[in-house]
Amino acid sequence: MKWIQRLGLWSVRHPWWVAVASIALLLGPASPLLERLDRLAWDLTARATQGVRDRSVVADEQLIVTIDEASLQALGRWPWPRALHAELIDRLAASGARAIGYDILFSDAGALADDRRLAEAIRHSGRVVLPVAPFEPLAGRGLRAGLPLPELQAGAGGLGHVDTEIDGDGLVRRLHLQAGLGERCWETFALAVWRVADPGAAGQVHGPDPLTRPNTLTSPCTRSGGNPTAWSRHQERLQPLHQVEVPRLSALQLLRDPLAATAVSGRIIWVGVTAHGLDQPVTSPAAAPGTAWSGVQWQAQLLHALQHRQLIVPADESVVAAANLLPMLLLALLLQWRRSHLRGRRLLLALPLPWLGSAALLVGTQVWLPAMALTAGLVIAFTLTRAAELQGARDDLAHAQGQADATLRAITDSVLSIDAQLRVRYLNPSAERLVGDTLARVQGLHVSTLLHLTPRDAQVLEAALGACLEDREVVQLQQPLRLDTPPQPRLVRLIASPVRPAHLGSRGRERGKERGRDPARSAKGGAPHRRVSAQPEVVLALSDVTVEVQAGEQLRHEATHDKLTGLPNRTLLTDRLQHALTGVARSQRTLAVLFVDLDRFKRINDSLGHRQGDAVLQEVARRLVACSRAHDTVARWGGDEFVVLLEDVPSREVAAALAGQLIDAVAAEFQLDGIEVECGCCVGIALAPQDGKDADTLLALADTAMYRGKAHGGKRFEFYASEMPAWTREWLAIETRLRHGLEGGDFVLHYQPQVNLIDGSPVGLEALLRWRQPDGELWSPGRFINVTEETGLILSIGAWVIREATRQMAAWRDAGVPLVPVSVNVSARQCLDRHLVKVVADALADADIPAHLLKIEVTESTAMADLGQLKALLTELRQLGVAVAMDDFGTGYSSLAHLKRFPVDQIKIDPSFIHDITTDANGAAIVRATIALAHGLGVPVVAEGVENAEQMRFLTEHHCDIAQGYLYAYPLACDDVARYLHGNRPNPHGHDAFAHTMPLTTL
């Protein structure tokens, strides 16, 4: 018994060598079993690779003439007189048969006249092929060849053997292209018939067989050293497993019906007995299920396979042995050398590989290489490998159980095991420490009692355990449970796992769809029904998350609250404001946002220090909270700014009253280190939904209102939408005066020269708008341009500027003043007006001024308004001949894109970059890059705001083309421009009266 156990252990440890031995056994002593497996594999593989039988394929070039029951009944019983066979052959020959396979053996002599008549018919046709069949005349005497009579052989077109090999399961799968006795060898009957019908095509069958011994087919075949009494077979082939339909014609119909002869012409004819009981049927897996072929049907199938090169070549036995044994042997040696093994799952994937290889070889080369021995070896190796893995798994399980027990005692999480009645069965040491008791004393207690849970948490726990027991699934509670355990309560997170998972029943599957539900909700309706199997258990894992929860709450508080004052920060304020606005939209209530900014806080911070400043902020926060209602939100916005959110404000007066209270509370004196400090505040108020309906808008409006209050002296509150605010009255007054100013001629143009940086000569003028006030003061556009944009007056004022500039150029021309181009600025709103091109064209035509003397300046911010519209506008202006300049270059956000897309004739660098070019390296780098970029595009550059010689030298050194600024001249009135252009010009260094004597009111 011991050696048997050792042998079994060795087999499990060395599965690959057992597989090698098994393959060798199948290839040797157990070959009959292997042959049965190979036959089964051939049938499956042939069907899989060749497809199911297709009855739609018809072999039209063949015809079977059947000696059936009707022919025997009309022409006589079998055997027929040979004269009748002669008549049948004559009829076939006369009808134009290509070849006649006469599957009837005429080996015995008959009536002399009949034999002569038959011989004459065969000789006269010359296309009749007669069969040769092996037979055993006497038991134990060996096989003999059944040949036709010599006189029939002499006239026949050929002989062919009709030997068929029957497999052990009674089916015929193979044929032999050659068979015979000793040195006498004949081709198979179908091949001999084909050779008569088409000698050239039949000769292409000859040649060596791949993966077999070299063997050339000849006719007749010659083999030396053979046993003259033994029937031998050569050139084995396998028949494809599909069936073709061959047309049939009864011998009676052929002999009696003259029209039947038309079906014979040009076809290969098979003649054979098909009457029941007279012919030995051929059973083949290629035939339809439950049917057998007659002899001539079998030959017709073989001929079709020969003609279409569909016969399969079986591999030689030595090749089969090597292909099955060597891969397993090499794999066993490799695994032993590398001291490794293949896992059962990977090996399972390799089981179909031999069959797939055989199928691929069959499809690619029409060679059949059976691999069932290799497959059987892989199955054995897989079985033994899985047995080894299972044994290893059992060993690992035993080891894991020991480790699990040790782990349960070592881990810090508390682990409890309970039964279906929720009674405690096991506690690990951590659980004993958590509940403050030992397993021996608490075993059998209800788990809710043991854990000291609140009634609600007890219901949640029972619901979770009920779901775990019923669904046999892991249940994890998202919310921690509170345990009232001494010395202080603890928060634990629970995971419940079933000990014995089972397949869910129908009700369990329905409940399983509800994964992720909160057990607390189930607890509200009572504990769920439990489906209890035999001794179910649940393991509870309790993780103490008290510290983590407290830390998370602290982090959440810090993320949403100001660290210094403890008030909500911007994030929480914005969230609450958005939530409150949602309620306002639904209920039509009013909401107020109060923006609070401290007055003179910077002075306190700078004089007393940041620590005292922090104390002031903390005290202000406390006072703001004290003045607010319980449901209001007081938040720190940043620095010395606070925001108070008032929800459900009954009226504007209530918001105003609370704002006044806040101002009074903040204005109370502070005591800081014995010093009395006073700090007031301003409050800006925005209401929703009157002023705005989103959080950002309300905050911005409240901030704007707060700054308006600061502008009026501080310690006051301002509503954003006050009925009669000062700024609104001023706006309306400016708008009215602007309308009258355009009609009354209060607008004038001043012109600032642009000079060539090389020689200081004037090369252009920029027209600058001025608005004359009743007291004589001139306002620059910065004081009123916003009103013109908002009211639309910019269109009429801009048109006036263009007409006035062209009119003034005409006046200078008439006075003999040398003209230079004049630049006119246009706003974004003008660029969006399609009438601008007509305004320019009409102004040039009315003044009779050449278009190149007018230049339109467009700022980068204007270019960003509508790229397509602006490009079309500038293209039309340039088509008029008007030049286009890009003003304030560098202040936008897509300068390169503008230069690429827009047709410009000049680039003007914004004065903000020129101001610091001698002191700011970044500004100087931008100016240098702009000059290089413009010159690379072939566009001149104008530097605006040149005020000193250092700036001029920098621009000159870096090849700037044109300069404009106070160094050369202030904006000039029309008469001053005439004198300037007549020759009273500044020198290149900027020392000129025009640069120093102009009144400031003209700037």
Characterise the protein shown here.
This protein is an alpha/beta fold. The protein has five domains: 125 residues, no CATH class; 222 residues, no CATH class; 140 residues, PAS domain (Beta-Lactamase, 2-Layer Sandwich), CATH 3.30.450; 163 residues, Alpha-Beta Plaits; 255 residues, Alpha-Beta Barrel (TIM Barrel), CATH 3.20.20.450. It has 39 helices and 34 strands. It has an eight-stranded mixed beta barrel with strand order 26-27-29-30-31-32-33-34, surrounded by five helices. Helix 8 crosses helix 11, helix 29 crosses helix 30 and helix 32 packs parallel to helix 34.
Structural class: alpha/beta
Q: Over all CA atoms, what is the radius of gyration?
A: 56 Å
Helix content: 40-55%
**CATH C-level of the largest domain:** Alpha Beta
Reading side by side through the largest sheet, how are the strands ordered? 26-27-29-30-31-32-33-34
Beta content comes to: 15-25%
CATH superfamily grouping of the largest domain: EAL domain
**Helix count, DSSP H or I runs of 4 or more residues:** 39
Shape: elongated
| Low-pLDDT segments | 206-220, 501-534, 722-729, 986-993, 995-1003
Per CATH, which architecture of the largest domain? Alpha-Beta Barrel
Enter the CATH topology name of the largest domain: TIM Barrel
How many β strands by DSSP? 34
Mean pLDDT: 81
Q: Mind sketching the topology for me?
A:
Elements: H1 2-13, H2 15-27, H3 31-50, E1 62-67, H4 69-75, H5 82-94, E2 99-102, H6 112-125, E3 128-135, E4 144-146, H7 150-155, E5 158-161, E6 174-181, E7 184-187, H8 189-197, H9 199-203, E8 231-238, E9 248-250, H10 251-256, E10 268-273, H11 295-307, E11 313-314, H12 317-338, H13 344-350, H14 353-365, E12 367-368, H15 372-410, E13 414-419, E14 424-427, H16 429-435, H17 439-442, H18 447-451, H19 455-471, E15 475-476, E16 481-483, E17 490-498, H20 506-512, H21 519-524, E18 537-544, H22 546-560, H23 570-587, E19 591-598, H24 601-608, H25 610-627, E20 633-638, E21 641-646, H26 652-667, E22 670-672, E23 675-677, E24 681-688, H27 695-711, E25 717-719, H28 726-744, E26 747-756, E27 762-772, E28 778-779, H29 785-791, H30 793-814, E29 822-825, H31 828-831, H32 836-847, E30 854-859, H33 860-863, H34 867-880, E31 883-889, H35 895-901, E32 906-909, H36 911-914, H37 921-936, E33 941-944, H38 949-957, E34 962-964, H39 974-982
Parallel strand pairs: 1-9, 1-10, 2-3, 2-10, 3-5, 11-12, 24-25, 27-29, 29-30, 30-31, 31-32, 32-33, 33-34
Antiparallel strand pairs: 3-4, 6-7, 6-8, 13-14, 13-18, 15-17, 16-17, 17-18, 19-21, 19-24, 20-21, 22-23, 26-27, 26-34, 27-28
Helix pairs in contact: 2-12, 2-15, 3-14, 5-6, 8-11, 12-15, 13-15, 24-25, 25-26, 29-30, 30-32, 32-34
